[in-house]
Amino acid sequence: MPDPAATAGHAIVLAAGKGTRMKSDLAKVLHRAAGRTLLAWVLEAIAASEPQRTLVVVGHQAEEVAAGLPAGVDAVAQEPQNGTGHAAQIALDHLGQIAPDATVLVAYGDMPLVGGETYAALAARPAEVEVRMATVDPGPEGFGRMIRDASGSVRGIVEERDCSPDQLLLTERNPGLYAFRAGALADALAKVGTDNSQGEMYLTDVIGLIVDGGGRIETFTVPAEDVVGVNSHDQLAQVEAALRRRINTDHMRNGVWMLDPDRTYIDATVQIEAGARIYPGTHLEGATTVGPGATVGPDCYLVDSSVGGEARVTYSVLRAAMVGEGASVGPYASLRPGTVLAARSKAGTFVETKNTTLGEGAKVPHLSYMGDAVIGRQANVGAGSITCNYDGYEKHETVIGERAFIGSDTMLVAPVTIGDGAVTGAGSVITSNVEPGALAIERSPQKDVPGYAERRAARAKKRDDATRDAQKGS
């Protein structure tokens, strides 16, 4: 049985590969799934084993990978990259003098579905066991085959590309998750050669060397769906779908209603309170929060935004926006960064806002653009109204007072202030401040031209007759 005292003294994550099959300029472990990089998912899960130190072996785009590591996790460069055994050796050397009986976890940075419970189980390596490792049976293609003797004891691992035809038929495979006794790992790595199809140091060769030295290997089986590695964009989509199912299931178990979780896309970084309702086609990303009783969707895209309790957002895009309790957004609204909607306010159909605050109960019901504006409590902005906030060089602010009424199709040329309770006439271009309670109208006098329609029709008929006569004459 595992020794509860044998926690992971150290953890090594192999993340130096380029990921050629991704056909991307971005390092493989920096590709994102459900709001985090692949590497971030792995590091979060490994943290469950409470390692004293965690090292990430970096290679391709080393600086970029290292820059994204959380506090307490160090990077060590593998250059040149000469295989997984070489990477483990570099990391072990970087750890320096550690106790021979310490446990060293080794994992891969492109396996985001492995849960913390698996790493914790690895870390609980019994003192008398040199290696505790995970296996999968049946396992996916690409993994090395577990070689056992007649008694069932592990004798070694053969990488798939080096397998004989008979070995390729073996179903038990190695996903590359290990907990080593540090001394055994160091001794075996010193003996690993490069006599294989890749001409590299294989970490898997360590298992056979430890067995040959009389060391004990202990295995446990993990689900095949947990050990999917990411080597291509189709595999990235596969693991993201699995992560999304886990995230959505957790939310629903915590009291969040979803009509169709398979069509609901929520990052791991998003917080949703019990009682919220999420409709299909909704994407919630970044630091987004959704309050109790709020409704989001269908077909919404929210990034780094907050939705207050009992608010509703429908068919809309929100980026770094704040929606207060009981507020209403959409359908087809675009709330850009700096937008703040106070309680029970409204940004309605085809409304765009940017760096704008709507006071409590204020309304911009439809077909308007409000940029760099402060809109007071209970104000109403009529359809087709615009804050003309940019003069070609600088942005300027529009202030609309409490209970003000902005008539439809009003152009508010900033900087301008509309006083509390003031009214603007429909179709006006307002270039000067409006005092509280006043009516501001800017229009040309209407002029009617009697008989215009008849004269216009007569001119058209005359032109058509002349055209026909010309065609006959030709």
List keywords for this structure.
474 residues, alpha/beta, Spore Coat Polysaccharide Biosynthesis Protein SpsA, Chain A, UDP N-Acetylglucosamine Acyltransferase, domain 1, 2 domains, 9-stranded parallel beta sheet, 7-stranded mixed beta sheet, 21% helix, elongated
Task: Give me the secondary-structure topology.
Layout: E1 10-15, E2 32-33, E3 36-37, H1 38-46, E4 53-58, H2 62-67, E5 73-77, H3 84-95, E6 103-108, H4 116-123, E7 131-135, E8 144-148, E9 154-158, H5 165-168, E10 173-174, E11 178-181, H6 182-189, H7 205-212, E12 217-221, H8 233-253, E13 257-258, E14 265-266, E15 271-272, E16 277-278, E17 283-285, E18 289-290, E19 295-296, E20 301-303, E21 306-307, E22 312-313, E23 317-319, E24 322-323, E25 328-329, E26 334-335, E27 340-341, E28 346-349, E29 352-354, E30 357-358, E31 363-366, E32 369-371, E33 373-375, E34 380-381, E35 386-388, E36 398-400, E37 405-406, E38 411-413, E39 416-418, E40 423-424, E41 429-430, E42 439-440, H9 452-473
Parallel strand pairs: 1-4, 1-6, 4-5, 7-12, 13-16, 14-17, 15-18, 16-19, 17-20, 18-21, 19-22, 20-23, 21-24, 22-25, 23-26, 24-27, 25-28, 26-29, 27-30, 28-31, 29-32, 30-33, 33-36, 34-37, 35-38, 36-39, 37-40, 38-41, 40-42
Antiparallel strand pairs: 2-3, 6-11, 7-11, 8-9, 8-10
Can you tell me about this structure?
It is a single chain. With 474 residues, the chain is α/β, with parallel strands linked by helices. It has 2 domains: 10-227, Spore Coat Polysaccharide Biosynthesis Protein SpsA, Chain A (Alpha-Beta Complex), CATH 3.90.550.10; 256-440, Hexapeptide repeat proteins (UDP N-Acetylglucosamine Acyltransferase, domain 1), CATH 2.160.10. It contains 9 helices and 42 strands. A 9-stranded parallel beta sheet has the order 15-18-21-24-27-30-33-36-39, with no helix packed on it. Strands 5-4-1-6-11-7-12 form a 7-stranded mixed beta sheet, with helices on both faces. Strands 13-16-19-22-25-28-31 form a 7-stranded parallel beta sheet, covered by helices on one side. The protein is elongated, with a radius of gyration of 33 Å. The chain starts with 9 loop residues before the first strand and ends with a helix.
